[in-house]
Amino acid sequence: MRAKLFRALGLVALTLVLVGCSGGDKPQNTFDPAGPTAQSQKDLLMPVMWVAAVVFVIVEGGIVLIAIKYRHRKGRDLLPPQTHGNTRLEIGWTILPAVVLAFVMVPTVSLIWDLSRHPDPGAMNVTVEGHQWWWAFRYTDPDMAVGYGDQGPITTADVMVIPVGREIYLSLESHGGGAQDANGVTDFEVIHSFWVPRLAGKQDVVPGRTNHIILQADEPGTYWGQCAEFCGLQHGRMRFRVVALDQPAWDAWVAHQKQPAAPPTDPLAKAGMDLFLHGVSSGGQCIACHAVGGTDAAAAVAPNLTHFADPNHQCFAGCTWDTSDEAALRAWLANPDAVRLGSKMPNYHLTPEEIDQLVAYLLSLK
Ligand code: CUA
After folding, report:
1. Which residue has better confidence, 34 or 4?
2. 229 CB under 6 A from ligand 1?
């Protein structure tokens, strides 16, 4: 019976190990760093983990050995010889852990200092806003202002586009969007944690203060991120992506972002724009929360949709769905709460015709 149990447990453990090592796409793998911040963190993690592994084996091995050797046996009711006080041993097991901790502390503290340094003078500044449950990215450098309206910063939702090989200095803020209470605290303003495992370790996003991360991507590509602090119902789907572009693609992206949304020419999309700007049949107003550059829609409570369908932007609604997934977009507009429980996007009871028009408009916002 016991042998069977052990065999079953062994099989489960083996399966877990094999699954953990399986090949394929692992977009959130800390052990596969793609930039200097993540690399330096891995370079610290590995030796500390080996030190911890050796300590673990010695301590746990000792416990198991002693438990087996001195276990209770029939006919041996007396306690084994008891020892009280051994000065040499006690000094030893006080000094040895202190030496081990010192060995771990030196590189840890020096990396903490290094990661909290000021960025390169050539770094790009991006303000990251954690919302329930999506991320906004505002490119606050003067050369990243848009060429229309109030000349505000280029702003994206769910996807942060960056150039390769350049330091990005992130300022992390928590944003509400609901009503303000008597103390000036906005509803929905909660703690999030910004985490792109292949580019940098986690950093908390705390209401009322600004935290920072320096990160950089060495190669073009898409790096998946995830909110890593429980922040409400859709925490698990508060995802995002960092898209790193080479210089020509980056320049093209910036130039395009500085342009307002191109007015649609297709009649269906035109009708959608009209609904978007002037309200739907139920009286709902998209522009109460969203912005589309170059139009009257300028609210910053919900994702900025100026270039919603830009191929670099990939996904929407906390990266729950890919932008290319039209069926998901329809379901989302039809009843946000049904596909994303607790969503702050209201259900405007759109007619099927209105959904057709709004989808056509949103997908025209390249
Ligand atoms: Cu935001 Cu979890």
Report:
1. 34
2. yes
